[in-house]
Specification:
With 215 residues, this protein is an alpha/beta fold. The chain has eight helices and eight strands. 32% of the residues lie in helices and 19% in strands. The protein binds D-xylitol-5-phosphate and zinc ion (ZN).
Length: 215
């Protein structure tokens, strides 16, 4: 199980300290939520801020685009060379083409599904993605309540991936804590994103470890 702290819940006035602390606490990925104020009713980081972040850490970046004009935004973030660049299926008419493009730039492409979007909708594009991010809250804000409907979706996706013998990571995002992590892992999740659970604790290493407990 890999853990990706979401810096949306970090103390922005001490961002450098926060990122160093997360690195010391052995975070596997740094989850960065990009919001455009249209796809979701909130605004967050742009490429300038993320470029500064990447200059002070070795943690691979996991950029989650919550934006409408996906292909335009993708080109702003490709030069930052994140490990994963994911976008919402709900926002893009040609996800297959866009994933191929992201891959051609040497970056692992991924698709994000909102809680109401069926897993079946990505059945035919699975070979074009390296990661699928399943939202366990409606996107836009940190600290929201976890939606248990996600368990069924993870199991369904796991089955689909295994059947196709595909190499695709399953990532889950929203409301994740020490109480639901082991069930998410048991259903087949590979990567857990957590904002509030990690950044509201006073021991980041233990908070990360609590999400990695074997079931
Ligand atoms: C929500 C974001 C999440 C958020 C998770 O739209 O995509 O990454 O930061 O935060 P928590 O873990 O606090 O729900
Ligand atoms: Zn996210």
């Amino acid at each position: 199980m890999y853990v990706a702290p979401s810096i949306l819940s970090a103390n922005f006035l001490k961002l450098e300290e926060e990122i160093k602390a997360i690195e010391k606490a052995e975070a596997d990925l740094l989850h960065i939520d990009v919001m455009d104020g249209h796809f979701v009713p909130n605004l967050t980081f742009g490429p300038c801020v993320i470029e500064r972040i990447s200059s002070i850490t070795k943690i691979p970046l996991d950029i989650h685009l919550m934006v409408n004009d996906v292909s335009k935004f993708v080109n702003l973030f490709i030069p930052l060379k994140p490990k994963f660049l994911t976008f919402h299926l709900e926002a893009e008419n040609h996800p297959m083409r866009l994933c191929e493009y992201i891959r051609s730039q040497g970056i692992h492409p991924g698709i994000v599904l909102n809680p109401h979007t069926p897993v079946d909708s990505i059945k035919h594009i699975l070979e074009f993605v390296d990661i699928v991010l399943l939202m366990s809250v409606n996107p836009g804000f940190g600290g929201q309540q976890f939606l248990p409907l996600i368990y069924e979706k993870i199991k369904e996706l796991r089955e689909m991936i295994d059947k196709k013998n595909a190499k695709v990571f399953i990532e889950v995002d929203g409301g994740i804590n020490g109480l639901n992590a082991s069930d998410l892992e048991a259903c087949g999740a590979d990567i857990l994103v957590a904002g509030n659970h990690i950044f509201s604790s006073n021991d980041y290493a233990s908070a990360i470890k609590s999400l990695k407990l074997e079931f």
